[in-house]
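DOG1 domain-containing protein
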Amino acid sequence: MSKRVVFGFHKRFKLSTNHGAEDIMRNQVVEEKFVEFCKKWVTQLDENLQLLLRASREQSLNEAEQQALVSRMTTHIKEYYTVKWAMAREDVLVFYNPVWISTLESGCFWYTGWKPSSVFQLVESIKKKREVGPRLDDLTELQAKKIDELRLRIRLEEEKVDRDTERQQVTLADRKMMELSRLAARFRREGDSTSAGSKHVDGLVGIALKSLMNGLEKVMKTADCVRLKTMKGILDNLNSKQSIEFLAANSMQLGNV
């Protein structure tokens, strides 16, 4: 969903009601809390990455030790989404216009995060890598086949998210919702914010906004679930050593959360 569409409509509704200042304050609080969390999360991510890189170079780790490293990183990734979902309940719009990602990462933005299909491009690039670093040049034919099948399934799920988002945009452009916004704005312009009619319209605007936010939160969570399913699907088809190599390469792409 276009950030311009989402924020344009939300701004129009906010300016039409008495809740604009409260919304802005809540947005700032959620944003500051998540930025602070991200700083600590990225620091821990880098520590985990160094462990993965060291493990990918060493041959002395046994299966249990390798699995422990994989589990440590996947648990860290899940923590990101747990916190994200909790804060999105307070203000989901923060995650549609994040200040904690770079301009380059923003260009690859897909519904509050990275696009799942990009991971398969990463797998291909690791397989072809020849210099020192994580690589996956020992994938078996069966592994490659299963990962390709996963890629096709994930593409279908991405398309479903796109369709769900299109339905959200249709709702945003609904004539009744736009008329409601204009009515609320007219009451404010005329200084009539205490009449029964104004309060009734204000209440309807609040209901419409809540419905909009719930829809955006649902799209975000659905997209996040596809991201997590992609990661799990790939790891399920790799052995411990390959999983370490994949997670190390994935962690180097800071936008992949």
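thats it. The radius of gyration is 22 Å. The mean pLDDT is 82. bye
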